[in-house]
Amino acid sequence: MPQALLAYNPVKNCVYAPINLRNRLAVIDGDNLQILNTIITGLYCNCDVGGVIFNPRVNKIYARNFLAGDTACFSCLSLVSVIDASTGKKIKHILTGVSPTYGDRAMCLHPSGDKLYIANNESNTITVIDCHLDTVIKTLYLPESPEYLTINTTGHKLYCTHGWNPILTIIDAKGEWAN
After folding, report:
1. Cα separation, 57 vs 114, whole angstroms
2. What is the pTM of this model?
């Protein structure tokens, strides 16, 4: 599954949409586009909500959040909020790394629904999260800052671009090592 700024839940026929700088996701009815609910995601009210992914295998929503760091260096701590899609309640936060701006939103769900990949631009890492345990199971170190992610449908190759550099890294999604 590719990364997304919006996520669709086919079971509830709703769309999850970030409300940036408001620490929330809007839950929107898929038919009449009415806001059904809002879900608090981050740790404080001015948190920027980035990418959103719905994982039907575990019935959870993963929302990318950024905690503003030192504004002189423009760095933000990146975390993922894990939300129970049935109740709309936050389960936990997972710290994934450092990103240089609020615009870094790359997340990618493995087709099996077992793993979530998070690109951390300033940390030069990709965080691998186990979606059943909601814990970091691996950190992949890259020579350049990862920016965008996608995975092929067989789930064997994760592709990663690197900021301004015309580089494409191919990562073995089974063994999780980079080429």
Report:
1. 8
2. 0.87
